[in-house]
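One thing: mind reviewing this one?
=====
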Amino acid sequence: MATTERKPFLLDFEKPLADLEARIDQIRELAAENGVDVSEEIRQLETRAVQLRQEIFSGLSPAQRLQVARHPRRPSTLDYIQAISDEWLELHGDRGGFDDPALVGGVARLAGRPVVILGHQKGRDTKDNVVRKFGMASPGGYRKAMRLMEHADRFGMPIITFIDTPGAWAGVEAEELGQGEAIAYNLREMFRLNVPILCTVIGEGGSGGALGIGVGDRLFMFEHSVYYVASPEACASILWKDAAKAPQTASALKITAMDLKQLGILDQVLPEPSGGAHADPLKAAATLKQALLQNLEELSQLTGQQRRELRYQKFRQIGVFAEISA
């Protein structure tokens, strides 16, 4: 049976780079078939490809960064867990009759240290995304997350959360099961936990769905990830009744890692490999692991009371501004 080669998913602004790389491959194949030495030409084209990749990804607009954050090949929570942990045991269920596949969690070892890791999990294709609800967690998912965090606090294990969701599941059944209450409960309870809490936006951080596992001592974001109170499409639909204005809205909302760092919301921007995290997932995972270990070491020097106080002050300072008179 004939098989078709699976083409990589390309964003619009990635196509010039893909065309250049395809040209390099074509020249290399033709040279091999005809026994011609084109090593110098290949070297020049590869240098140009590196430059083009850097040019493209260093000048992305907020709307383009949103596309990268939603890239279907971008590493997910389970990808990072497998890459950074020595051991991993996934735990299931909220002990109330539900096990949400859109929010996964369990116990792991990070550089030999026991930790609890949890995060949103999107799918790789349409079928998988339907099962995972596109990473939009239900009330049972947030209750499962809180159960695991309470387990971590009881046994003195640091908590690591990975945020990657367009928002909490907004179905009628979710509201019937108490979506708002489940998220609000998590927000309150995460402030009282004694253990270190490290939160990382690995892709898309949307609204209360992200905040439900986003109260921590440190907040990291990957360079091309986004964090917002409402998606640019939803915001444009509300303000202008036109979702096509999402690119303008993305700029106005200040959703990028650099914007949030300047606003004092974000603690650290994690650089991504040239071409985005999906271009070199292992390198992105190594960057993430280094940041987690460094900050865990710092936070471990503090008492539980000190961590709680710093966590409280961190969130109290978000949104503080000064008025300058004329």
